[in-house]
Amino acid sequence: MVELNGTSAPASDSHTGTQIDQIAVSPTAPDQVANLAQTIASLSKAFTAGEAGARLQLLEAADSLVSALETPRETILRYCWRNPTGFAAIETGINLGIFRYLSDHDRPIPIAELATATASDIVLLQRIMKQLNAVHAVTETGRDEYTSNNFTRTVANTRYADAFPTITGTTSPAITAIPAFLRQTQYQNPTNGLACPFQQGFNTKYSFFDFLSRDPTLSAQFNNLMSVYHQGRASWMDPGFYPVERLTHPSNHTDSGILIVDVGGGKGHDLNEFRAKWPSARGRLILQDQPGVLAEATGLHESIERMPHDFFTEQPCKGSRAYFLHSVLHDWPDDTCLKILAPLRAAMTPGYSRLLINENVIPDRGAHWQATGLDWVMMADFAGAERTEAQWRELLTRAGFRILKIWTGDAWSESLIECEVVE
């Protein structure tokens, strides 16, 4: 390892100053531009024709084209200037009510009117609006005049807007602390949720969830983020993903009468979605989480039962057809995951009950940034992880489960890991 403490030169300094300056202002991958442009042209036609999956493929190709055309210097400025300041401008816009005001008025809004509506300094507001337009959060229609776009209208809604204060209040300082934390720990993989970048970034002794529980406003914002981040991604219960009939067939019912127990299910968005998409499915649907979280689970279908439960304790629902964990295990290192899985294994009926884990399965090659980025969030906040298939198999084998199949909808969405108990 090359030390970067001022006593040793980084390996890249083998290039002369002139050479590195030329590299820094040249496109990163000019040889890829022509092929990517052709791919974009083809995918644009597919998208216009309404072909399934074309939009996401086009988005990936467009991102690759930007990366190929962008110079290293421009990439540096994007990470150092555009992304963090764009985030700050958007959160400020949320706090001021800018997005809501623009969305409530179906016309261009002059800056003077917006300053009056938000009770903000007009010079400051000009700076805010120029940055929001630069990152496409609003649309500039003239000099000091702005209107809404679909992003504006989305973050005008509290459920979506809460992503920004949630990340500020729970995650950004922890992510910023990662490089120093890893250096101090000699680059060992974090495995202790009470000694990870979160504690360093927030200067706290508490775990993530203990820290969160002490701030009701932040807790509510976090639950809103959890309720929307899955939106627009392939869902395990959609046709062509997981064959739900495996669970719902009449021959697959026992005296327990429970179809799905959503363990740590938050505000119940998964069970609500299931009931909407599979209205005739027989069996009880049970939502389990902490009492404070369940209290915020409004708008649940009347058939969904709330059950306060700590998933580290004995599972009260015995012999259920399915125990469902959505984005639970990635919050925890392996040893803690084993403690979460043990009560479920004890409650399951061998040969009948299924454990369904809805999480990312990181591929060996070509992993998507949504999965790898979330992996770093888990590292920062929990000493948790998004796992590869090999890591999932190792963990679940240790916990006494056999993976029947890993079901995957597309490269941009979480998988469904279907397991049974090993007798």
Automatic annotation (TrEMBL):
Xref: InterPro entries: COMT-like, COMT_C, SAM-dependent_MTases_sf, WH-like_DNA-bd_sf, WH_DNA-bd_sf
Domain O-methyltransferase C-terminal: 259-402
Protein name per its UniProtKB record: S-adenosyl-L-methionine-dependent methyltransferase
Keyword Phosphoprotein: no
Gene Ontology molecular function terms on file: O-methyltransferase activity
Pfam hit, one: Methyltransf_2
Superkingdom of this protein's organism: Eukaryota
Gene3D superfamilies: Vaccinia Virus protein VP39, Winged helix-like DNA-binding domain superfamily/Winged helix DNA-binding domain
Keyword Lipid biosynthesis belongs to the record: no
Species in which this protein is naturally found: Aspergillus sclerotiicarbonarius (strain CBS 121057 / IBT 28362)
A single GO BP: methylation
Coiled-coil segments: none
Signal peptide: none
Record keywords: Methyltransferase, S-adenosyl-L-methionine, Transferase
